[in-house]
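User: Structure please.
Assistant: Input sequence and predicted structure:
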Amino acid sequence: MRTYGAGGMDTDLNERTRRLWERRAGRPLTEEDFRQIAENLTGYFGLLIKWDGQQGSDDQGRAAQDTSPVETKQEVLANSGLRNGRV
């Protein structure tokens, strides 16, 4: 049975995610580190979903109607606080 912490987050998923990123970082993560990683991942996958939706618009010939800017990889990294895509 899953347990949920503050904000309805799956605590088991949080712990597995924390362990994964602690191994990659080579050090224990602070709560702020973990919060930033979760925020960056959420933003990253949100951007992929946005790009995928825009690709669908292109496929259907409706891309000209969408005038919202698409961020480049460099803009995403600059806005996320990541350096060279690393934690």
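The chain has a mean pLDDT of 77.
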